[in-house]
Amino acid sequence: MPVPYSARLNDFRISLPMEIRTLLGQMAEQNVLISLTAPRGITYTTTIWEVDRLKGTLCLGVEPSGRHLDRILAAEELLAVGYLDKVKIQFDVHDLMQVRDTDGQSVLTCRLPRELYRFQRRSHFRVRPLPTPAPVVRLRPYPESPAVELRIIDVSVSGVALLMSGRVPLSTGMQVAGADVELDADTRFVANLEVMNVSPLRQDVSSSRVGCEMSGLSAPALRALQRFINQTQKRRRAMAWADL
Known about the structure:
CATH topology of the largest domain: Pnp Oxidase, Chain A
Radius of gyration: 19 Å
Number of helices: 4
Structural class: alpha+beta
Largest sheet: 9 strands, antiparallel
CATH architecture of the largest domain: Roll
Shape: globular
Number of domains: 2
CATH class of the largest domain: Mainly Beta
Helix content: 10-25%
Strand content: 35-45%
Distance between the termini: 47 Å
């Protein structure tokens, strides 16, 4: 007899408040992108700014040029999905509203979830490069504009996240050809970028996290990128063990 879907989900359900807050706190620290999805496929991308245990709330960022925010706020059902490395985190969103925080910034708040689900899903690891030497991408937002240099926040074999100041005009849907990606002295290549999302950073409201999909990499570039990701994982693992 088939096992009901709800019963199969029990293996992935987390209901301990401390474990829930820990996972959400890790997502906040790593500026993990969160997709809020309403019925009929309406989505809104944000990040967790704060996990407030005392108030029992989550604080989420508001993208200035974000689409569908009004429809997301009016939705009766909302699902949040984000990823920690290869782990998919999913939970229902309740009582979402837009408010002003103590700094006067517009933010979203909702109740802390009473349960969430954790699934293994991603096929590609995403890693945060070590801060030195600083990994960067050099690109021209428009063919006629001067080149700009943006620091890399994290990278996978299919995409890259960049730190953007308010002066750099990148927005969702933009395509940038021929960007120079420099991860370290031995890992440099050219890629085409498509901006998938732009999310403000809580720790620096004048800056944003820009998630881009990469394409057009040569076979040697892909091999060098995979080698860089593997080496970065090993170095971070070794650093974590050294701190124990």
